[in-house]
UniProtKB/TrEMBL annotation:
Keywords: Signal. It comes from Pseudoalteromonas obscura. This is Hint domain-containing protein. Residues 491-589 form the Hint domain. The keyword Hydrolase does not apply.
Length: 674
């Protein structure tokens, strides 16, 4: 066990070990202009400037700056010898990084509006960085800015110390109250999501190094304001030009806009959506439940494959359908390799497409048009198709465009509807065994396009990204609405042949049970009081993850999925894969010692039961879950498994200091004293 050194604590005047302490997030209310990259400076100098605007320097982050200097010296030495710099994050050792698996994933999560519990409207932008390789430190900053780098939303930076409860997902949000930032949005000529990340890690040579990425994604100002219910009231211009960012700007005052009371643009997602078990009180709890191996009433997306399908043939498949209107006439869709799907429209707005295989990444874009699934646990991201078992089709293959005009009073606006329809058979995101049981798998649809747009007295060709999908919400306030919840990957349950104890004392294999029969079990509130429970439903599926085999001192054995709840001596349930040799668990005959825990491959059906008190039991309690006896061991039913599917973890300062290398202790403690 690593402990913070006494010398470090003494140097800092002591340290507190009580608060939840990772990650450390700070709003920088005094920042006037975001520092932009300067190619004339070294990487070290550029990073130093970016960090300095947030008060981070060599004095308060000594180890970070040591790593930055070492990396800069090594890169300069390699450059002198003619050695090209290779990213150890994009291609980490012993990892397959290909079209399907993006090992180093940095992305903008888009612009969204949300209303808090007090009825205040906010604009929220967010970004994610996720690495497959283990990291020792991650710095992120983010703000919505204008063409001069002046913040529109409140600039925020965040520091992640190693990989704690956030695991492989490092994210950041920047918010602004709508009434405060609306004048800034109207006054801007251009609007960008400006994000920066610096990551440190141990490379293949065992040396700690740093890598930095910067992203400046332009949003369509007219589309953004139209989403908020504001449109320009200037006359339509003539001619076509490519926008020159060095030209003198003509700032449009707020009086140049008309509030129309509702969004001019329409949009909608019909898949994936959360249809069941919706929490209206706290929408941040909502998830789109993807059942990878079972068909059951709690699944928003049922298992795609029939029970008994061999595990190596089970894929994670998710349908995507919806549409999104944007201002202007879309002329190109950028594909992942930067080739383009070009479009022309006839007089009725119907498209004709051609593919241009040659292409370069425009400076305004970061990702091509692509769908990603990103999880806390997996690291990086998984792209749609990506060549997995021949599924080499692209998101852009399923996109259709329609050009039209819409009148608001005396004004006419050009618009394009971007629609997509990816059936589940085509929404392939790799082997289901990659996913495990993931609480919030973000789905990120990135639409990168070129469009012709009217801007006051002129028309321009511009390139934008639109993002549709889920994102984490700021957790320092409560929210009334969440537009798109994340996915939740779930599995099931108990192995075929597991003997379930009935209310009459007999036992029957779980696959032979029927709805309406009664089994012996207990309430979560009184695990030691055995009562008859009625089977309300039965879940049947197949398991693509290794199962856990538990053995007790009396020889009882049970094969169950890794996250199936097992009732422990205290009466609290624990995941099966968290049970250890020497633990005491509850059984039908009392407490027993666990003598063996091991993983075991499994290719048969798996089952679980949903239980309820019988009709003549007067002690019904809302939200109550139950346990039953499987091969004599007390384990949870389907409702208990759902409640315990994911762990709520919190870290204190002491936890972080035990986990991170001692070289980082002073940097970390300094971050708490800001």
């Amino acid at each position: 066990m690593k402990l913070v050194s006494l010398a470090v604590i003494a140097a800092l005047g002591g340290a507190s070990f009580v608060a939840v302490a990772n990650p450390i997030s700070v709003e920088n209310l005094n920042l006037q202009t975001i520092v932009q990259p300067d190619a004339s400076l070294s990487t070290y100098e550029q990073v130093s400037q970016r960090l300095a605007q947030h008060g981070i320097n060599e004095k308060n982050r000594p180890h970070l700056f040591h790593v930055l200097k070492t990396t800069d010296i090594n890169q300069a030495s390699q450059s002198e010898m003619g050695i090209a710099s290779v990213s150890g994050l994009a291609n980490p050792a012993n990892t397959e990084c290909d079209n399907e698996k993006v090992c180093s994933f940095f992305t903008d999560m888009g612009f969204r509006t949300a209303t808090d519990s007090n009825g205040n409207d906010y604009v929220i932008i967010s970004a994610i960085n996720s690495e497959t390789a283990p990291t020792t430190y991650t710095f992120l900053d983010l703000s919505l800015v204008n063409e001069h780098g002046e913040p529109i939303t409140i600039p925020r930076f965040i520091e992640y110390w190693g990989e704690g409860v956030t695991k492989k997902r490092m994210d950041i949000t920047s918010v602004g109250r709508l009434r405060d930032i609306l004048p800034k949005l109207m006054a801007a000529e251009q609007i960008f999501a400006n994000a920066w990340v610096t990551v440190t890690y141990i490379n293949a040579s065992g040396v700690e190094v740093a890598e930095t990425k910067q992203m400046s994604m332009e949003y369509s100002k007219d589309t953004l304001l139209a989403d908020l219910g504001y449109v320009r009231n200037t006359a339509e211009g003539q001619g076509l030009e490519v926008f020159d960012p060095t030209a003198e700007m003509t700032i449009q005052p707020a009086s140049s806009y008309t509030q129309i009371g509702a969004s001019l643009l329409e949009k909608g997602v019909t898949a994936p959506v959360d249809r069941k078990e919706i929490d209206n009180a706290d929408p941040t709890n909502n998830r789109i439940k993807v059942c990878l191996n079972r068909r059951y009433d709690d699944c928003d997306i049922d298992a795609y494959y029939d029970p008994g399908t061999p595990n190596d043939q089970i894929k994670a498949v998710v349908p995507f359908t919806g549409y999104r209107d944007v201002m202007g006439r879309v002329t190109k869709i950028y594909r992942p390799d930067w080739s383009t799907k070009n479009v022309t429209f006839d007089d009725n707005g119907n498209p004709t497409y051609t593919i241009d295989p040659k292409g370069e990444r425009p400076v305004e874009l970061y990702h091509g048009t692509e769908i990603f699934i990103q999880t806390k646990e997996l690291g990086g991201a998984t792209a749609l198709g990506g060549g997995y078992q021949g599924s080499n089709h692209l998101f852009s293959d399923h996109i259709n465009l329609k050009y039209f005009t819409k009148k608001v009073g005396s004004m006419t606006f050009d618009m394009t509807r971007i629609s997509w329809n990816i059936p589940r058979s085509k929404g392939i995101f790799g082997d289901a065994r990659l996913y495990g049981r993931y609480e919030d798998a973000h789905w990120i649809m990135n639409l990168s396009i070129e469009s012709e747009e009217t801007r006051g007295p002129r028309k321009m060709t511009r390139r934008y990204s639109y993002v549709v999908g889920s994102a984490d919400m700021p957790d320092d306030q409560s929210w009334k609405d969440i537009e798109h919840p994340p996915l939740q990957m779930v599995f099931s349950c108990l192995a075929k042949g597991t003997m379930i104890k009935l209310a009459n004392g007999k036992e029957l294999a779980i696959e032979q049970l029927s709805v309406g029969e009664t089994v012996l079990g207990a309430s979560q509130f009184a695990p030691n009081v055995h009562i008859p429970l009625e089977i309300k439903d039965i879940s049947i599926g197949s398991e693509s993850q290794p199962m856990i085999k538990l053995t007790t001192e009396s020889g009882k054995e049970l094969l169950l999925t890794e996250s199936h709840p097992v009732v422990t001596q205290s009466g609290v349930s624990s995941w099966a894969n968290k049970v250890q040799v020497g633990d005491r668990i509850r059984t039908a005959s009392g407490l027993e010692l666990i003598t063996q825990v091991k993983e075991q491959k499994y290719n048969e059906h798996v089952y679980n039961l949903k239980l309820a008190r019988t009709a003549d039991d007067p002690n019904h309690s809302p939200g109550e879950t139950f346990s039953m006896f499987a091969n004599g061991l007390q384990v949870g039913d389907l409702a208990m498994q759902t409640d315990n599917e994911f762990e709520e973890l919190v870290e204190t300062e002491q936890d972080v200091l035990k986990r991170i290398p001692e070289a980082w202790h002073k940097d970390y403690l300094n971050s708490l004293n800001k």
